Amino acid sequence: MPTVILVRHGRSTANADGVLAGWSQGVALDDSGRAQATELAARLSVVPLAAVVTSPLQRCRETVQPMLDTRPELPVHTEDRIGECRYGDWTGRKLAELADEPLWATVQRHPSAAVFPGPDGESLRAMQARAVDAVRDWNARIEESHGPDAVYAICSHGDIIKAIAADALGMHLDLFQRIAVDPCSVTAIRYTAYRPFLLRLGDTGDLTGLAPAPSAAATEASETGGNAAADTSGDAVVGGGTGTP
Q1: What is the pLDDT of residue 210?
Q2: Segment Disordered: which positions (predicted)?
């Protein structure tokens, strides 16, 4: 199955102000976020992407725009299920204030029990379920259109990406707060018939290793204990792989 590159949006005005943006409208990238998005496009230029899927929120759409500017042929799709968690009555409030709320401790220590207050609030369990379902659905669509070795990008939000990574690692949601993903970082997951492989987590460096290997090289790597990203069998490389050629 395809490799999905999960990109957290660049730093937003809400991030800079310490505000929980949620689904608030008009939350844009700040100057640092725009620079991060430009750098991201350059980092990803070495990876032949099949498509880009983005959250509908402005900060994600702005993050992928430099990539689309340099690759106008790249299909782009909007997916509500990878939109930010619906924080309900917490939306738009300062994180420093929210830390005094009784629910804060649940979000930190027992997130599978956390349900955000208000008519628009959702549980973190529901957030994870919709996001993982979205990735699985897009994996199938991308594989059908572009083949099992395709790579595509999803631009989403911190809690969404952490929850997807936790699912890929087989971690209970109660442990997902142990994962950190910075603005414009890349988390890459290679899905196979038997298990996902986490290839990158919160990576802000070079992404050359995420480019699919040529088929002949992939075969050789598989036969000689090559890297897991090139192995389509779904088996892990015993002893560890050889890394990027």
Answers
A1: 80
A2: 213-245
DSSP calls for 151-189: EEEEEE-HHHHHHHHHHHTT--GGGGGG----TT-EEEE
Over range 185-205, report the average pLDDT: 93
CATH 3.40.50.1240 domain residues, the chain: 3-212
pLDDT at 205: 82
Judging by beta carbons within 10 Å of its beta carbon (0-12, 13-18, 19+), is residue 125 exposed, middle or buried?
middle
Do β-strands 3-8 and 186-191 pair in parallel, antiparallel, or remain unpaired?
antiparallel
The region that residue 170 occupies, defined by phi over 0 for left and psi between -120 and 50 for alpha, beta otherwise, is left
Predicted model pTM: 0.87
Mean pLDDT of the chain: 89
CATH number assigned to the domain covering 3-212: 3.40.50.1240
Task: Say if residue 6's pLDDT is above 80.
Answer: yes
Which residue's entry shows tokens 């088996």? 235
d(CA 205, CA 184): 11
* Half-sphere CA count of 96, side-chain side, radius 13 A: 5
